[in-house]
Design goal:
Layout (H helix, E strand, L loop, with lengths): L1 H34 L2 E10 L2 E2 L3 E6 L5 E4 L6 E6 L3 E7 L10 E5 L6 E8 L6 E5 L7 E6 L2 E2 L3 E6 L3 E6 L2 E3 L10 E4 L4 E2 L4 E9 L9 E6 L2 E3 L2 E3 L1 E2 L2 E2 L5 E5 L2
Length: 248
Amino acid sequence: MNRAFLIIFILFLLIGGIILFAYFYYEKPKQEEIANSFTNINIYATDEGKNIITGYTLEVIAYPIINSMTVEGGAIVEKVPTNSSFKIYNYNLDGQNYYTSFIDKNLYGLYDFQRTELKLEKAEKLNVIKSGNFGVTPVKLEVSSNNYKNLHFCLKWSTHIITVRTNFSETIKPKEYEKYDRCYDTLISLNSTNSSNIILDYKYFSEIDNGDFINIVLYDQDCFNYQCYTAINNTDIGGQNLEISIRK
């Protein structure tokens, strides 16, 4: 009995020693190497497959935020700690109107480099076809664009008009349009294959005269970092907003 116990005890010590040896000789150095290592993040920004110059922001937890610019001739290389996560997104330089390309990536294990491509899309202009006779029938606006993200609109109207109803659900007014009566979310992003029909049905006192109006502003939202924005720091982002005044 004692002999069997001694053999088991010796085997236990041998196995434990082998495990400890493997940990300190192989696993621990590997973990330390990973903990102290960095991965090269190769950052590109492209428009229809062509490298372009634009701004980008790189965020890594517990590290300073980096704001820099991409280049046309290749990649910008930034170092990110291994076994960390990072976020990268573009911002427009003067004269640019790209929507935000947002990347949120985790780095687990050892990598020499990671290719990170910001695929950019330009916001395109809105086209509107109006039909209907204001003061007699509802007004329809057919809105189209080759690329216009998250179409929203706000309405305000003259005092003769009691209320205006639309075919879309009301949403929270952004502070940029607090003076408007109501705002709406179409739940549509416009592209070359679709359009949005906005119906304006209204009630009014007596009759509509030349001083009456329904004003509408059409605007988009740019979404990144899991939030959507109409403007940042009081500066409109995304596509150009469009204001229309509907009158007799």
